[in-house]
Amino acid sequence: MSRPNVLFLFPDTHRGDWMPYAPAALAALGMEALPLRMPHIEALMKQGVTFMKAVTSSPLCAPARACLASGLRYNKPAVTGNHENYDLSRKTFYSVLKDNGYRVGGVGKFDLHKATHWWGLDGWIDDLSLLGYTDAIDNAGKIDAIISGKESPKDPYMSYLYKEGLADVHLKDMTDRGQRTDATDLPDEAYCDNWLTRNGVQMLESFPADQPWFLMVNFVGPHEPWDITHRMKADWEQVQFAAPNSSSVPEKTWNQIRQNYAAMLENIDRNIGLLLEAVRRRGELDNTVIIYASDHGDMLGDFDKFGKCRPERGSVHIPLVISGPGIQKGQYSDTLVELQDLASTILDLADLSMEEAQDSISLKSVLRGEAGSALREVQISGLDEGPQHPSSWRMASDGEWKLIVERDRGDRLYHVQSDPWENRNVAEEYPEVTVKLKAALQGL
Predict the structure, then answer these.
(1) What is the 3-state secondary structure (H, E, C) of the chain?
(2) Staple partner for 336: which of 42, 203, 245, 379, CB 3.0–4.6 Å?
(3) Given this model, what pLDDT does residue 374 score?
(4) Where is the Sulfatase N-terminal domain (predicted)?
């Protein structure tokens, strides 16, 4: 068989427990089934391996994506926050694919040069070639697009809206949106995830038939603010969700936010169907690895918090599903995964490697069901103080216990098998566990 293609589906801010998991898997997370509508993701889960204990390297866009690109844990790529760009002298797994004959494409929000508010009006700057891309339409994220594009476009999505006479509609809608959940007046075809999916389909159709390809689709949803179209709003406004964990937020607030969040996930799933159909038209589904993951989650009202940057489950737990040739079907795995592991996994599936990706462990053995495929004993995530996050912390978990070490706050230890929502701090009761997990954080 020829080297596999890779379709990497990567939404922004999809928390790991908001997935169409089987009942037993939901029970392990301490959850009941959510009224999600994600048939394409559900189908991929039946065709591949679903990782239940995947965490982000860092729950903030630029650091997470830097860790993914480099195969390194937080801090090591020197992108500690959204105010720093990825060092172009540092190798990426994208460049390894490119150097070994892959067509390497990407659409959507890359966030590898987030601190520089210029993406090129066609989504291409020379930095992307140095990062390893052969084809790219890199657009700003939700907030960056309107901040940079108030007077004139700085990225391809705002350029498109200006050309269509829709920029004022979008700018007016996004101004002071906050926790507003009313619908945007943008037509469906101009909604960003729909626009960037069309770019992805067109890019895929342009790839030559005799060359292996990698395509990363970086959706901007379900990132806040929770703006959705009128069509999306109508489909969800009567749906009731379970309450956030340990929250005093009014029900009207959290339920409407959760409705819009679910609507964005459904829309992403619909767009995934369009991308899969494009692969099918090329006759390449049987030789394409399909990966679904996210950079981080969202608290969605848990502990009265919304957004990311936190060490709690809603923020650091991410979805991860991998399917494709030679991969087990319909399996759930408790393997302790960190986001940067996908760098070595993708390369390994292409029979390649990257020595610089020192913290990235290939999941290939798990995907193929090989015996004795436990990979790491402790998984780690972290974030340091920055312009958007006033606290520094590290998280370490062995799958049974989870330790949070946060500056200006005492150590927190949770027995996540019996307390999956992390409500009861038992650090004083189990000091030996705290010591063991803290040792895994040394030198990070």
Answers:
(1) CCCCEEEEECCECCCCCCCCCCHHHHHHCCCCCCCCCCHHHHHHHHHEEEECCEECCCCCHHHHHHHHHHCCCCCCCCCCCCCCCCCCCCCCHHHHHHHCCCEEEEEECCCCCCCCCCCCCCCCCCHHHHHCCCEEEECCCHHHHHHHCCCCCCCHHHHHHHHCCCHHHHHHHHCCCCCCCCCECCCHHHCHHHHHHHHHHHHHHHCCCCCCEEEEEECCCECCCCCCEHHHHHHHCCCCCCCCCCCCCCHHHHHHHHHHHHHHHHHHHHHHHHHHHHHHHCCCHHHEEEEEECCCCCCCCHHHCCCCCCCCHHHHECCEEEECCCCCCCEEECCCEECCHHHHHHHHHCCCCCCCCCCCCCCHHHHCCCCCCCCCCCEEEEECCECCECCCEEEEECCCEEEEEECCCCCEEEECCCCCCCCCCCCCCCHHHHHHHHHCCCCC
(2) 379
(3) 73
(4) 4-351
Q: Give the model's pLDDT for residue 390.
A: 83
- Residue 420's identity, in one-letter code, is P
Residue 373: the pLDDT is: 61
- Cα–Cα distance measured from residue 86 to residue 67, given in angstroms and rounded to the nearest whole number: 10
* Among 195, 216, 192, CA closest to 204: 216
46 touches 329 (CB < 8 A)? yes
CB 350, CB 343: distance < 8 Å: no
Q: What is the pLDDT of residue 388?
A: 78
Find the radius of gyration of the CA atoms of the chain. Answer: 21
Asked if 142 contacts 174 with a C-beta cutoff of 8 angstroms, the reply is: yes
pLDDT score recorded for residue 2: 83
First-to-last C-alpha distance (Å) of the chain? 41
Of 422, 420, 421, which Cα lies nearest the Cα of 412?
422
Residue segments in the chain with a per-residue pLDDT below the cut of 50: none
pLDDT in tens, 70-100: 999 998 999 999 999 999 999 999 999 999 9
Region at 42 (left for phi over 0; alpha for psi -120 to 50; beta for the rest): alpha
**pLDDT reported for residue 1:** 56
Asked whether the beta carbons of 157 and 139 are under 8 A apart, the reply is: yes
The tokens of 130 are what?
Answer: 């140095």
pLDDT in tens, 421-436: 999 999 999 999 999 9
**Would you state the pLDDT for residue 389?**
82
- pLDDT at position 443 is 67
